[in-house]
Amino acid sequence: MTFEEKSAFSIRLCQSAGVLARDYFMHRDQLHVDQKGAQDWVSEADRKVESFIRERIAEAWPDDGIVGEEHDGTAGTSGFTWVIDPIDGTTNFLNGMPTWAIVLAGVSTGMTQLGVVHDPIYGETFSALRGSGSKLNGQRVRVTEGKSLDEGTVGVGYSNRIKPENVTAIVNALVVRGTMFNRNASGALSLAYVAAGRLLGYVEEHMNAWDCLAGQLLVTEAGGVVEDQNADEMIREGGRVIAGAPQVFDELKSIATPAWSERD
Questions:
Q1: Do residue 83 and residue 17 come from a single domain?
Q2: Do 63 and 114 lie in a common domain?
Q3: 248 plus 163 within the same structural domain
Q4: Phi then psi for 199, rounded to 5 degrees?
């Protein structure tokens, strides 16, 4: 089957999963919640939404591999692997903030071939298919053109996997440069916003594959620039993410790299 068919399937699946997740969101006071680490939470909604997605993939594409945030991976034989984040932005979700998303990517031969970031609250579905551009609810989107860092906003990610001072160094450099910064606690949505021209760029020292692969493809297919990375390696280890409009990418990299490398 073609990547085009898988892409169409992934959009429909994320939208269906979004209906389920939104219902959990509306009744979040009834959810069982566990803590995985500092400011790192998982709820039964995360687990059940991921199980829903896994079951639908297994029915439609039984030979494909599956990797997700909340359950063990499933090996495949087709050479194609689905990568799932059932709720990116769980902290927002649990605190009643409407900034979270269903995220799904498809990987083969070390490259992300398709990606979806679906926002059930605002009804926005960002999708990308390698070589076919990025779309928002079916309409093509592009990164911001012409604006410099002092004319827009850059998303900055943070997690408990990195040193706090590495983040403050980035924020300080952006402020000195005259740039507005934003952290919405959903890296996938932030990358989608770069693709849609809402943010100039996004930087985070370490992201897991389920958080970033779909969004990185969105940025690339929307005319932006991301660091060249092997998707299979990202699945195994995660890695740093720098993404942005072409006119700001090199400057973002020059800001982020020393902030991260000098404090390792």
A1: yes
A2: yes
A3: yes
A4: -115, 150
Domain around 39: 3-140
CATH of the domain at 47: 3.30.540.10
Total of domains in the chain: 2
Domain end position, chosen among 87, 111, 140: 140
Are residue 18 and residue 69 in the same domain, yes or no? yes
Do 106 and 81 form a contact (C-beta atoms < 8 A)? yes
Reported pTM: 0.93
Measured from the Cβ of residue 168, the count of other Cβ atoms closer than 10 Å reads: 13
CA atoms 40, 44, 50, 53: torsion sign: negative
Give tens-digit pLDDT for 100-153: 999 999 999 999 999 999 999 999 999 999 999 999 999 999 999 999 999 999
| 28-57 residue pLDDT tens | 888 777 655 444 446 788 889 999 999 999
Nearest of 112, 116, 117 to residue 230 by alpha carbon: 112
Instruction: Tell me which of 107, 140, 173 is where a domain ends.
Output: 140
How does the average pLDDT of the chain come out, rounded? 92
CA distance 186 to 216: 13
